[in-house]
TrEMBL record:
This is 3,4-dioxygenase subunit beta. Pfam families: Dioxygenase_C. It comes from Arthrobacter cavernae. SUPFAM superfamilies: Aromatic compound dioxygenase. PROSITE patterns: TAT (PS51318). Residues 53-78 are annotated as: Disordered. One of its GO terms (molecular function) is oxidoreductase activity, acting on single donors with incorporation of molecular oxygen, incorporation of two atoms of oxygen. InterPro entries: Intradiol_dOase_C, Intradiol_dOase_core, TAT_signal. Residues 158-212 form the Intradiol ring-cleavage dioxygenases domain.
Length: 303
């Protein structure tokens, strides 16, 4: 998609005002909101490299984008040694965060979750009446969901197989589809995936832009099942993924990210309204790749 330059993204008056603000909105739609989120230690975050089987590629290349369909591994898929280590090392509570003003989950207007086509791995394009594709550097995001209720000493956490994640983020110009001027009729960069037998799932997307007031990030919600996700049902967790400084600097030097290159230096992890409490240490993805070849981001999420 070719887009013309737009002025620097201005912070929305309700943009990421905090968890308390969002919960008051979310609870009106979801009678039970159990936000029980945790994550692996910093070592576990570094250790969680996705397996090399179906849907779990550790590297991202522009030619390797998956089709827009659900491609979860079979229940018999074997966990890689690093995924097994992630199960054993989980334990640090993952911070609860705001869903922001642009969730598209029905809590404040638009609802992508009940739309046909939202269940897909490749979220770069809109679905439904539009097929517009968001331009930008390729990014593969892989999450490993762990069941914190099964923790048992050295045995760690079991994979949260069958859970579902709804992920969304802004485009390279800092705009959120379904809400903001110019992209209000698009629904790209939003999608749902189901965790496989190892609790793992992946999204193929583009590297989000940087806008005033926020560190580059990806929003996500965890549901106990695919059925709950597509019906906007019981929510287990709400949080955000922080992207690394080195990757952001590399990507924002690329064509198309000029607005992000100007905005990025204005906010640090320590000054960010969401990540400032701990500098995003537990939400910072492990990243590999380059702007030319594409990036891969991985993270452990204990629910």
């Amino acid at each position: 998609m070719t887009t013309s330059p737009i002025p620097s993204h201005q912070p929305h008056p309700n943009h990421d005002r905090g968890l308390e603000f969002d919960l008051s909105t979310l609870l009106s739609r979801r009678r039970t909101l159990g936000v029980l989120l945790g994550a692996g230690t910093a070592a576990a975050l570094a250790a969680c490299t996705p397996g090399t089987g179906t849907d779990g590629g550790a590297s991202a290349t522009p030619s390797g984008a998956a089709s827009a369909s659900t491609t979860a591994a079979s229940p018999s898929a074997a966990a890689s040694p690093t995924v097994t280590r992630a199960f054993a090392e989980c334990g640090v509570e993952f911070p609860k965060e705001t869903a922001g003003p642009f969730p598209g989950d029905g809590s404040n207007g638009p609802n992508a979750l009940e739309a046909s086509g939202v269940v897909r791995r490749d979220i770069t394009s809109s679905f439904g009446t539009s097929t517009t594709k968001a331009g930008g550097v390729l990014l593969t995001v892989t999450l490993t969901l762990l069941d914190g209720s099964t923790k048992n000493g050295a045995n760690g956490c079991a994979p949260l197989a069958g859970a579902a994640v709804y992920a969304w983020h802004c485009d390279r110009e800092g705009r959120y589809s379904m809400y903001e001027p110019g992209v209000e009729n698009e629904n790209y960069l939003r999608g749902v995936q189901e965790a496989d037998a190892n609790g793992q799932l992946s999204f193929t997307t583009i590297f989000p832009g940087a806008y005033n007031g926020r560190w580059p990030h990806i929003h996500f919600e965890v549901f106990e099942s695919m059925s709950n996700a597509t019906k906007a049902g019981q929510l287990l967790a709400v949080s955000q993924i922080a992207l690394t400084e080195a990757a952001c600097k590399d990507v924002y030097a690329s064509a198309g990210y000029e607005t992000s290159a100007r905005n990025f230096p204005r906010t640090t992890l320590k000054s960010d309204s969401v990540f400032r409490d701990d500098g995003g240490i537990y939400q910072l993805a492990t990243m590999s790749g380059s702007a030319s070849a594409g990036y891969a981001a991985t993270l452990n999420v204990t629910v």
